[in-house]
Write a structure and sequence with these properties.
This protein is an alpha/beta fold and 664 residues long. It contains 19 helices and 32 strands. The strands form six sheets. Strands 16, 17, 18, 25, 26, 27, 28, 29 and 30 form a nine-stranded mixed β-sheet that branches. An eight-stranded mixed β-sheet has the order 6-7-5-4-8-9-11-10, with helices on both faces. It has a six-stranded mixed β-sheet with strand order 20-13-12-24-32-31.
């Protein structure tokens, strides 16, 4: 599963198969046909959760006394209806101090549908508000990690897939385990040695666990990996249950084959400078301030003054026909960004999940899309194929090719988004140019024109301008120009979906139609050119000939536009993570040039407290928010929002290793 050629999307995530009955409290309770077992006690599911998982992990006391700057992390082996997590959240709200944060992690192989989840919680008025937050953000059944921001201080990571496989790829540590899931006799495939090994690998010294079962395989499995267990009286008719702690022992090294990706140790992050106020920097600032950091957001040109300054931008991904690490990241980023935007702007004032059509403009692209659909068992709520008639109905205009429809994609106003992010409490914006950077005993000192700024850590997020600070990481400049056309009669432009082919065109907004964009590698000229307006018009005619015909004759002189310089990496994946000391990496791992399979024990050397979010290219509106969440999670020692192999795929040092292996 961890190599470039694995495809977790071939196997569809099958939803839970349910029957329904009333529990003793007259709540509708689901029953699993697949496992022939209940999701929670028919007598009193909520009291069972409190007794088994909250009380025997000592959560009320531990949460009330939580003073660490990082979140308290609860892990769970079966999400089910979410009852355990909602009860843990309620307990946290009731007893935790104001500065505490709660991070919930739960795996689920067969998730309920959104409708089933709503049916479960319809009769629980005291949990209704929390349940509604869960239901509104409930993700489509796609393998991988889905991060939900349930409340300002409460985060939930849903891992869809096999429990052992998901937890083995978890990048983060847990403080308390809820070992739930169907009984070992009903679901023996879950309670196997790989699960217990993954639990131990993700535990801290003193991590506790509780489980309703006393089955022999569970006791033996826990003991084998270092958990001390004890029997205690069970809930209701259940005579006994288990609880205990993980006794610290040497754990398997998570990155034994790739020690260069070992993350730097956590350090203070009370005050962080973010350089760059486009989408990359502004989203990092928002993610950090949500965790309690004080942010100084610095940009010499202003908020969204560079490549993030277009009036409208597509929320767009183009996934590979055969899933690879890059495609897996971009799909996760698209789904995360949609939820993130809905939380920031639930009224859709400056963004829209209008949907997007990726057009098959020629036979080659049509075959590629057919191959994509054959290789990806994804739900229609995420992507589906349609012929030209279906595409025309979806778009509201005539489309002359087949297409892939992404219902949750759309467009955003980047300037409004960046201003919203920069205005969050805890963020101070300074329009200034970074002149120099110097490490101090406690952090970093930044020199600006006439002022000095002392901070704990620094994040570089200035696109192509970041190259001066990234210790030689390769960045390619790519010039892009958009064109905008005033539409005095909006009725003539019935386009309702974003259309993407070689170029793109967005649904009109505010009486203007935006389309483009040109793609000029190694060009740093940001002046608008008439020649690029002509290129955009030609591409619009190829992408949407019926739309072009409805607009009548258009000349470049009728268009306004905007040109900017984006940055891309050689492999077209963003850089998101700690800044490597390139010289030290080349010295430590030089033998890779002779033997690419050589094993090393030296962890990667990084500049302490320096981070980078860059090389987002033309898809930064999708990629930057999840990269920001990754960086903020790492800085604050939270579990990460992606599987470990995807975190490593984004690491800025990957290019150093690739070049060493190639002998460059």
């Amino acid at each position: 599963m961890s190599d470039e050629h694995s495809n977790p999307f071939r196997q569809r995530i099958e939803p839970a198969e349910l029957d329904w009955h009333l529990d003793t409290g007259q709540h509708e309770a689901p029953f699993s046909r697949r496992y022939d077992d209940v999701y929670f006690s028919r007598h009193d599911g909520r009291e069972e959760t409190r007794f088994v998982f909250l009380q025997h992990n000592e959560l009320p006391e531990r949460l009330a006394n939580w003073r660490a700057s990082r979140a308290f992390v609860i892990g769970e082996t079966g999400f089910g209806t979410g009852l355990n997590m909602l009860c843990a959240w309620e307990c946290f709200d009731r007893v935790a101090p104001a500065g505490a944060r709660l991070h919930l992690i739960s795996v689920e192989k067969h998730p309920l549908t959104r409708d089933s989840l709503a049916r479960v919680w319809a009769g629980w008025p005291d949990l209704a508000e929390r349940a509604q937050a869960l239901i509104e953000q409930w993700p489509a059944a796609v393998p991988g990690v889905h991060r939900l921001q349930l409340a300002e201080r409460v985060t939930l990571d849903l891992h869809f897939g096999d429990a052992a496989a998901c937890l083995a790829r978890l990048d983060g540590s847990v403080d308390a385990w809820f070992l739930d899931g169907f009984a070992p006799a009903k679901n023996p495939d879950m309670w196997q040695p790989p699960l217990f090994e993954a639990l131990a690998a993700a535990s801290r010294p003193g991590t506790t666990f509780a489980t309703f079962t006393c089955a022999g395989p569970v006791k033996r499995g826990l003991a084998a990996v270092g958990f001390a267990w004890r029997k205690v009286p069970g809930f209701g008719r259940k005579r006994e249950m288990l609880c205990g702690e993980w006794q610290a022992r040497e754990r398997p090294v998570a990155r034994a084959a790739t020690p260069w990706f070992t993350p730097p140790p956590p350090r203070r992050a009370e005050r962080v400078a973010v350089i760059g106020a486009g989408i990359a920097g502004a989203s990092v600032a928002e993610a950090l301030t949500r965790r309690g950091s004080e942010i100084i957001l610095v940009d010499r040109a202003g908020i969204a003054a560079g490549a993030s300054g277009n009036p409208q931008a597509a929320l767009y991904v183009k996934l590979a026909a055969e899933a690879n690490l890059q495609s897996r990241f971009y799909l996760a980023a698209l789904l995360y960004t949609q939820r993130w935007l809905a939380r920031l702007d639930p009224g859709r004032r400056w963004w829209s999940d209008s949907g997007l059509l990726q057009l098959a403009g020629n036979d080659r692209e049509r075959r590629r899309q057919q191959q994509f659909l054959a290789n990806h068992a994804l739900p229609e709520a995420v992507v589906s194929g349609c012929d030209r008639y279906g595409a025309s109905r979806a778009a509201g205009i005539e489309i002359d090719s087949d297409a892939l429809l992404y219902p949750q994609a759309g467009w955003v106003d980047p300037v409004a988004l960046c201003r919203c992010l920069a205005s969050q409490p805890g963020i101070e914006f300074r329009q200034a140019e970074l002149r120099s950077l110097r490490e101090t005993e406690t952090g970093w000192q930044l020199q600006q024109a006439g002022t000095t700024l002392a901070v704990d850590q620094v994040v570089f997020a200035t696109g192509y301008a970041s190259r001066d600070w990234l210790d030689g990481l390769p960045l390619q400049s790519i010039r892009g120009q958009i064109s905008t056309l005033s539409c005095p009669d909006p009725a003539r432009v019935a386009l309702s979906k974003v259309l993407c082919a070689e170029g793109y065109v967005l649904p009109p907004r505010g009486g203007e139609l935006t389309f483009g964009a040109t793609f000029s590698p190694n060009d740093t000229n940001a002046e608008v050119s008439e020649a690029d307006h002509r290129r955009n018009l030609d591409e619009l005619a190829r992408t949407a000939p019926s739309l072009m015909a409805s607009l009548g004759e258009i000349t470049p002189g009728m268009l306004r536009g905007r040109a900017s310089v984006r940055a891309a990496s050689p492999d077209k994946t963003p850089y998101a993570g700690p800044l490597p000391d390139a010289t030290q990496w080349r010295r430590d791992y030089a033998e890779l040039a002779k033997d690419a399979r050589r094993r090393f024990h030296t962890p990667g050397s990084h500049y302490p407290g320096l981070w980078v979010s860059a090389a987002h290219g033309s898809r930064g509106m999708v990629s930057a928010p999840l990269c920001a969440e990754l960086i903020a999670s790492r800085i604050h020692d939270d579990p990460l929002p992606l599987e470990r192999e995807l975190v490593d795929h984004l690491h800025p040092g990957r290019r150093i290793i690739a070049d060493l292996i190639k002998g460059n």
